[in-house]
Amino acid sequence: MxxxxxxxxxxxSARRADxxxxxxxxxxxxxxxxxLNVGAGAGSYEPGDRAVTAVEPSxxxxxxxPPGAARTIxxxxxxxxxxxxxxxxxxxxxxxxxxxxxxxxxxxxxxxxRDRVVILxxxxxxxxxxxxxxxxxxALELDRGRFPTLVELARGLGxxxxxxxxIPADCTDGFFGAFWRRPEAYLDPAVRAGISTFSQLxxxxxxxGLRRLHDDLARRRWHDRHGRLLDLxxxxxxxxxxxxxxxxxxxP
Length: 252
Known about the structure:
Blueprint: H1 2-7, H2 11-14, H3 19-29, E1 34-38, E2 51-55, H4 59-62, E3 71-73, E4 87-93, H5 102-112, E5 113-122, H6 130-135, H7 137-146, H8 150-157, E6 160-164, E7 167-168, H9 189-193, H10 196-200, H11 203-218, H12 221-226, E8 234-235, E9 239-245
Parallel strand pairs: 1-2, 1-4, 2-3, 4-5
Antiparallel strand pairs: 5-9, 6-9, 7-8
Helix pairs in contact: 5-8
């Protein structure tokens, strides 16, 4: 909560739902009619065709939710104020790495969901992409310390299906891996303001990495090393949908 109380202002404009990722989340939710969105933020991935209740601990984020957004309760994932099996599904979208106690939060998701739990997260075992290999290796180290592994998620959720979520080249949601084909975007302070990774790294390391990226773009060294990416429509940079039922997995 403290992270987004500090950096969350303007988050809604920087982090707009990408329709292809939203469609993947919708497929994962299956036939669920009632959905709890935990760590809901500004509500960018809340499906409009289902009855959604949102949980968000940060008032800064709640204040950015648009008119007509789902009813929001200020609470933490680790202590959801709902009875058992209250919702058909519970979802948590790019939020686990901000939770104080991931196992407790996962247990709460399972407790309140009758049918399934849907989580969008990043696999910390993934090798990352050019930003982490060439300019900010500290970001990969950070992710390995704050994102739960897929094994840890399976331990907390039970049997689960894992689906790759390739990131489109023109992704409209400005999370850390979204700009893999638009390197200039990382030089924009407004873009970085919507990415919590930058606020949690050593500012000197971030400054060094960005100066190196600026220089490599100006001298076209980035293009020499990574120009082949400019022909790709999407890329797997480690994001995963994890879908768990109440004991025996969950299909589409």
